[in-house]
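Worked example (supplementary).
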Amino acid sequence: MAKYVVTSQKVTVNGTDVSDACARAELVLNAAEVETTDFGSAGWTEVVGGLKSGQLTLDFHSDFGAGGVSNLFQDLVGTIGTFVVIAGGTAASATSPEYTATALINSFTPVAGAVGDLATFSVTFPTTGAVAYATA
Amino acid sequence: MDIQAIRQQIAVNLATISGLRTAENVPDMVNPPVAVLSLEQIGFDGAFNQGLTTLQFTLFVVVSRADERTAQRKLNQYVAATGDYSIKSAVESDRRLNNLVADLRVRSVTNIGSLQLDDQEYMAAEFDVVVYV
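After joint prediction of all chains, the assembly is encoded as:
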């Protein structure tokens, strides 16, 4: 195992590889804190893990060309999409694990950017159901 | 990504300016009026899997200073944002460079004034051109 610089992560949306339009990917997995503090907690709060949830954030370069990522998201708002993110590589392995999540595509910003800037957009989607983890 | 083809296509765009020579590579000697394209910097990994590479060129435009007023008038036309002699308009006339790149932009022009080359005095300006591949 080694530390790595992010250059070649793979991101797919409903099976379409959008890696070359994606500049940042972040998948956060959470577990709710359920408090179990009682008189026996000796003055400290106590918690246990509750329901798990996830959040996927992706930063894209806008592209309305044929097969472009902006066109892809245009028709997906309001649907459940399947997202695959491979950390630190383009194929799943022990050192570049693959996360598969289904998420609600609840927003899309087709137009963003100031004059002179590269046109970009960011999306943050809540996952639904389990997030799968694979190393092969 | 074919950098030489990108240079050539920028030169093609510049060829729409009447009377302006274009050197897609840096020449040993200048023969004004001439636009000389110099690749300054390449930024890699703008997106995953080398999905975005950024090339930054400096485009030097050099005019003869034999007649200072004529030189200044000519340079004023080249540095203007619009017009038949506008470098910005010409370079951005095909921003996809015949589908070689995603986009390009002439961001600014600086160092507008005198330039000394081989003991010769010229008028010149430097255009900052960014190309997204």
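Two points are worth noting when inspecting this output. The mean pLDDT of chain B is 94. The longest helix of chain B spans residues 3-14.
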